[in-house]
Amino acid sequence: MFEDNSFCRTRDVTDGMSNTAMMAETRKACCLNGNNANWYDRGYTQTGLTLRNNPPNRFERLPYNPPSTTGDVLGDWTNTGSFHTGGIHILMADGSARFLNQNTNVSIRGNLESIADGQVLGQF
Q1: How many CB atoms are located within 10 Å of the residue 69 CB?
Q2: d(CA 104, CA 85)
Q3: Is residue 98 very low, low, confident or very high in pLDDT (cuts 50, 70, 90)?
Q4: How far apart are CA 58 and CA 26, in angstroms?
Q5: 3-state DSSP assignment of residue 112
Q6: Which pLDDT score, from 0 to 100, does residue 75 have?
């Protein structure tokens, strides 16, 4: 919904507002070399957060980053994360807030961030 130069309107969310994530929670501490974006928006030189590419609360390091000494720094700038056990809060496009388990299937996470994939999610 919020890509660069997006002109997305309600009518463009053909999957329905209750099937589309609008914002996702994250932590500011990231990658040991900077800060993450706020919620689901973009940060300096980054493409924004993603639910599809990495599960919430992924702390694994990329090969070229030093390991986290505390174990609580997100592994990538696009990762979602929280201080809640087991997942994150997401804001759906219909205005409802949901808790997304960090073990949620990758296809469901991908469907959540797509506005027009034709998939009805139901409970997750």
Answers
A1: 8
A2: 14
A3: very high
A4: 11
A5: helix
A6: 79
